[in-house]
Amino acid sequence: MNKENLYAGSPPPPRRKPGLVPTVVAYLIISLIIFTTIGLVMSQSLARISNMATNTRDAVLPEVFEKQRTAVNLERLGRFAETVYRAHDPQIRREYKLAARILSQDSVFGESEVNRQVMSAYRDIEKISQLRYEQSLLHAHSSTILFNFGPGKKFAQALLEMENGDRMADLLFLVAKARNANTMHALKSEFRQLSENIHPASPRQSKSLAQALEFTRLRELDLQLKNQCRDLWMGVNTNLEKMANNLSINAATTADSRFTNIATEADRAMYTGFLAISVLTLAMGILIFFAHRDIVIPIIRCVGRLDKIG
Amino acid sequence: MKYTCWFLLALTLLFPGGPARAGESLRIATEGAYPPFNDVDTNGNAIGFDVDIAQALCASMDVSCTVHIVKWDGLLPGLTAGEFDVIVASMAKTPEREKVVSFTNYYYRSRSTFAGDPNRKFLQTPEGLAGMALAAQADTVQANYLTTNYGGSSKIVLIKTNKMAFELLFRGQVDAVLSDSLTIFNFLQSETGRQFDFVGTPLPASDPSSEACIAVRKGDTKLLKALNSALKNIRLNGTYEKINRQYFPFAIY
Prior knowledge:
The structure holds two protein chains of two kinds.
Chain A: H1 3-6, H2 20-86, H3 90-104, H4 113-147, H5 154-161, H6 165-177, H7 181-196, H8 203-309
Chain B: H1 2-14, E1 25-30, E2 39-40, E3 46-47, H2 49-61, E4 64-69, H3 72-80, E5 86-92, H4 95-98, E6 101-109, E7 112-116, E8 133-137, H5 141-150, E9 155-159, H6 162-170, E10 176-180, H7 181-188, E11 197-199, E12 211-217, H8 221-236, H9 239-247
Parallel strand pairs in B: 1-4, 1-5, 8-9, 8-10
Antiparallel strand pairs in B: 2-3, 5-12, 6-12, 7-10, 7-11
Helix pairs in contact in B: 2-8, 2-9
C-alpha cells in the first residue's frame, strides 16, 4: 500500500513545524543580519564624519590658517608700502622697505600667482623708496634756493629790483605751495613768460633769475616724482588689498564648505540613526511576535501537556 | 581610607608628573650671539626673541627655567652630555643634527639671504661670485650651503659668530654674508649696517635654514611633546604674537 492510498479520503496531515532550536537559530540569524546591517551603515557614516573631521584638522584648518596669515601679511605689506610712501624720515623709509623685502620673501606666498604679484609689489615699493629718496634730495635743494628768496635775502633783493620782480617773487612762493600738476604748469609758464622779457642788469640779477628758474624746475620735478610715487603706491595698495580680500574670502569659503560637509554628513548620520532605531523597533516587534508564536506558545503548550500527563 | 590611598597611588602611577613636568626645572641653552634672536645684555644676561619664547614656553608648561649661554659649537655636545635640557637658539633641523637630537615643530620661519654692498654687482651663481669673499657662521646650515655651492669659486670665510661675520662685512674683509634674513634685517638697521642691503635672491623656502626649531635630547619624547603642546598654547593665547611684535613688525611664525 502506498502513501496516497493510505491517506485517501482523509484530510492531509498538518505541516510539521520546525523544531525549537532551528527556529531560535533562524531568529538569531535574522537579528544578527539586521544588527550588522544597521551597525555597518552607522559605522560607515560615523567613519566618514571622523575622516572629514580629521582631514579638516590636519589639512583644511592649516590651509585656512596659512591663507589668513598670507592675507594678514599682504595687508602688512600694504602698510609698509604706505609708510615708505608717506614717511619723511629716510631711516623709517629704509626700515620699512627692508621689512617689506623680508615679508615679500615669506614662504607662505609660495611659488604661486600670489608670490608673483607680491614680488611685483615689492619692486614697486623699492621704486617708491628710490623716488622718495630723489624727491628728498630735490626738496632739500629747492628749499635751500627758496631760503635765499626769503625776505631780505640776496636773491630776493635782486629779483625785486627787476621788472615784474614782485609778481615773480609771489610766483616763486606759489610754486613752492603748488600741489597739483596743472597749477604748477600754469605758475611755471607765467614765471617763464615774465622772465623771458627781462634783461638782467647785473650778474647778481642774472644769478637770481637763474636760481628762480632752477627752483621752478626742481619743484615741478618734485611734484612729478610725488605723483609717480602716489600712482605706484595706489597700484600696490589696490593689488595687495584685492589679493588679501580674495584670500580672506577664499579661506572663509574653504572653512565654510568643509564644515557644511561635516554638518550634512552628521545630519545624514542622524537620520540614518533615526531610521535604524525605527527599523530596529519594528524588527524587534516582529521578532517578539514570531518568537511568541513559534517559541513561547509551543513551549507553554508543551509544558501544559506535560502537566496534564503528570 | 586605605582604598583612597591605593586609588591615589594608582592615579600617581598612571599620570606621573602631569602633562608638562609641573614643578620641575628646565635648563635652557642659547648662544647669546645671534641678535635679535639671542644676545647678551650689559649685565651678562641672555636676551632676545629666543629667550622670551623659551620663558613663555616654560610658563606655559608650568616649570621654572634657567637660561644658560653656551657657544654655538658647544650646544649639541652639551645637550647630549646632559649639561642642559633644551636648546632654543634659532637652530635649523637638519638630518645630521636629527641623528643626535630631537626637534620640536618650528617656532619661526625665515629665509636665508645675503647681505652686502647694494652698489656692487651680485650675480648669485658660482661664476658670478667667483673671487668674492663670502662669510657665514661656522657649523651652520648657511656655512654648509656656502661650502657646497660656492666653495670651488669663492673664498669662504667661516667664523665663530654671526655678529663677527657682520663685523667682517663692515670692515670690508668680506664681500657678503649669508645669514638669516631677520638677523640681517637687524644688522641693516644698525649704525654699521646702514651702507649695506639685502643682495641677491633668498635661499629656497624648502632649505632647512628656513625653519628654526627647539632641540631636546633624543628619546626625551615627553619633553618634546610638552614643548610642542606649549608652543601651540602660546600661539593660541596670544603670547607668541606679543613677543613677535616686540622684535619684528610682521609675523614670523
